[in-house]
TrEMBL record:
InterPro entries found in the cross-reference section: ASHA1/2-like_C, START-like_dom_sf
Gene3D superfamilies: 3.30.530.20
Superkingdom classification of source: Bacteria
Pfam family, one: AHSA1
Family listed: Belongs to the AHA1 family.
Protein name (database record): Activator of Hsp90 ATPase homologue 1/2-like C-terminal domain-containing protein
Amino acid sequence: MDKDNSEKITIETVVNAPVKKTWEYWTKPDHIKKWNTASDDWHTTICQNDLKVGGKFISRMEAKNGSIGFDFGGIYDEVKLHESIKYTLGDGRKVEIKFNPKGDETEILESFDAEKSNPIEHQRSGWQAILNNFKKYVEKNNIS
């Protein structure tokens, strides 16, 4: 991939939960498997997460009807507890997630290098749908 010409895409949301709880739901495999989908006809069947610099993560995402699936994974470049996560995907693209505490809420900003094979808006809407699903999951299950 030619990273010099890669466009960055940024998505965001505000989650009605404190940063500590938001971080836990973002990083624990048992939680990830429950929110890591862009639509109800997909699910995450496997999730492993070694959350440390040099650690690997992988999520197996599949259509519920079994027609298609793919692995989404990479290696962590930087982990700052309750603040930010940076990683490199298997195809070399970079991703950064920032967790900004706003009282009892958490703003999440997620930026990633666009890939070349799908339109920018398609990528933005897909990643935003997953982030929206995360927000919904946290707010439904957040018991402080």
